[in-house]
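User: Let's play a game. I give you a shape written as tokens, and you guess the letters that built it. Ready? Here's round one.
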């Protein structure tokens, strides 16, 4: 089993044992829903706020994942992010703490995908699109195109509802950006 898959499986089992809901997002979710590309890390949104930091540190320690430099309690609580590394492989994992209703709903909607012998919770195609459009980098937009191209039966009302809400935060029209991508894919 490749290192990424083995690490994902170990994390999934440990989080389940600790009763912490989660979903894999980012490049790993793109690999499930979109077109293959290289990704150098694992991004996981936790169904826990930073008040569960000690539990997550315990999970990381049990899995021999060491916090990278600067991951003080103050930093983690201020940024809702704990980055750890598996020293033997050099793989990094970003544990993102959640507190928004959107994140909690997205975790509940996550899709179970079998990786090796483990069942791992991945963000749905729609939620991966939302995350990627919100981030808005060129690579993220290419990821969205790949996901739209590979998934013709998206839950568009759900997708557009959250894109509209996040448009206020980003001061961009994310619904329009999504619709333009959809038109480009349909015409291509």
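Assistant: Ready! My guess for every position:
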């Amino acid at each position: 089993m490749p290192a990424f898959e083995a690490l994902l499986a170990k994390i999934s089992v440990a989080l389940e044992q600790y009763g912490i809901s989660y979903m894999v997002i980012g490049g790993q979710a793109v690999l499930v829903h979109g077109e293959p590309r290289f990704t150098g890390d694992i991004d996981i949104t936790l169904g826990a706020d930073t008040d569960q930091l000690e539990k997550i540190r315990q999970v990381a320690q049990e899995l021999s994942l060491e916090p990278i430099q600067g991951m003080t309690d103050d930093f983690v609580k201020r940024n809702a992010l704990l980055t750890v590394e598996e020293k033997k492989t050099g793989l990094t994992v970003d544990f993102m703490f959640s507190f928004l209703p959107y994140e909690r709903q997205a975790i509940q909607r996550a899709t179970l995908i079998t990786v090796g012998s483990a069942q791992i919770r991945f963000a749905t195609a729609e939620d991966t699109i939302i995350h990627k459009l919100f981030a808005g980098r060129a690579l993220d937009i290419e990821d969205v195109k790949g996901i739209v191209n590979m998934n013709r039966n998206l839950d568009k009302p759900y997708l557009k509802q959250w894109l509209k809400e996040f448009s206020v935060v980003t001061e961009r029209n994310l619904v329009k950006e999504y619709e333009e991508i959809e038109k480009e894919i349909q015409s291509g």
